[in-house]
Design goal:
By secondary structure, this protein is an all-beta fold. It has a 3-stranded antiparallel β-sheet, with no helix packed on it. Strand 1 and strand 2 form a beta hairpin.
Amino acid sequence: GKWEVLIDWTKSEAINSGSNRMRIDTQGNKVILYVNDKLLTETRESTFYGGGIGMAVTSLRDSKGIVLFE
């Protein structure tokens, strides 16, 4: 498939400088992003109607972060 950014980097007071918990919900073609149980943003994607979804995680600086998926 083709890589497409649905929600770009977003600055928020809800994002900690240490660890953060992220959650992505989908409802039909709506994608909803939460961080630390606070709504960060949402968007609609006309070509997405369920199925698989992916998430990329990166650091803006060199770090030895750990990413866990539940």
